[in-house]
Amino acid sequence: MSLPLALRGLFQEAAWHATAAPVAEAVLDAPAEDGAVLDVHVRSKRYGDRSVLHDVRLRMRPGEIVALVGASGCGKSTLLRLIAGLDTAYDGHVKVRGRLQDAPSSDVGFVFQEPRLFPWCSVADNVAFGQSKAAGDGARVAALLADVGMTGRERALPKQLSGGQAQRVALARGLAGQPRVLLLDEPFSAVDAFTRMKLQEMLVRLVQHHRVAALVVTHDIDEAAWLADRVLVLDADSGRLHRDIDVPLARPRERTGATLAAARAAIFESLRDAHAF
Ligand SMILES: Nc1ncnc2c1ncn2[C@@H]1O[C@H](COP(=O)(O)OP(=O)(O)O)[C@@H](O)[C@H]1O
Ligand SMILES: [Mg+2]
Question: Which of 22, 52, 83, 130 gives 75 a disulfide partner, CB atoms 3.0 to 4.6 angstroms apart?
Fold first, then answer.
């Protein structure tokens, strides 16, 4: 199975997307001069009469982590689907390395809230699933599993793994196609607090090692502040970006400290403004 088909298969909403008419603008530019690997401008995304995203712009560099926060239903997952090339029924463009992302490609990896592993496939086969021969090669899969601390569990089945281990395999699978952009939709919200911190630390290491641009949707203000170089707050009603908050902290990061506390407060206030609570 090809990667685009495999990625589509992981989405429960795949049938809906198959019926959406592609109307994204067909522009091909040279790679960005500012080093951005991802260039997004969604002028408008609608579901029927309802406007979900409006004038959303985002540029990301390799190795950068951006957190996306906002109330349920404000359009976070929709934005990720547009960037993944799974939904092209919008006005605007998504470019990865200057190329229009108008269909799923190996340039963009995806990690979901639940691991979504195939229960009948081993850990190694889940990572290799849908990849090209080179990307699914045993040595490459072994290296990815080493990156996520799963060496020795290659032949295990998903049912033999804890929730945290399964999500580590999902991280390895997200990176299997050597993507430039990694999209993560509430990736750690189903695990306990300690496992969550371990997974956050692992994600930072993976982003640095693989030089991907990682866009992480989260509901957790602490997670957004600790993980991200920038935090984007999506407005609930207008579908616009409400604020872009810098977190000017070197890594490795402590979990305490004044700068982190200030970032948390800025995210909280911005969410309160954006959602009027
Ligand atoms: N396939 C779809 N068809 C129609 N409406 C949708 C579809 N997917 C999402 N929506 C609606 O668009 C809005 C944004 O959804 P979503 O991007 O999933 O929000 P979030 O991830 O921020 O919770 C919600 O109101 C949701 O009900
Ligand atoms: Mg969502």
Answer: 52
**CATH code linked to domain 5-274:** 3.40.50.300
DSSP secondary structure string for all residues of 151-214: TT-TT--GGGS-HHHHHHHHHHHHHTT--SEEEEESTTTTS-HHHHHHHHHHHHHHHHHHT-EE
Ligand 1 atom with least separation from CA of 185: 21
81 close to 217: Cβ distance less than 8 angstroms: no
Residues 6 or more apart in contact with residue 91 via CB below 8 angstroms: 23, 24, 25, 42, 43, 44, 45
Residue 130 backbone dihedrals phi, psi, to 5 degrees: 80, 0
In the chain, what are the domain boundaries? 5-274
Lowest mean pLDDT among 63-67, 116-120, 182-186, 236-240: 236-240
Is any atom of ligand 1 closer than 6 Å to the C-beta of 12? no
For residue 252, whether the previous peptide bond is cis, meaning omega lies within 30 degrees of 0, is: yes
What is the CA(78)–ligand 2 centre distance, in A? 7
Cα 240 to averaged position of ligand 2 atoms, centre (Å): 16
pTM: 0.90
N-to-C CA span, the chain:
46
* Ligand 1 neighbour 78 (Cβ under 6 A): yes
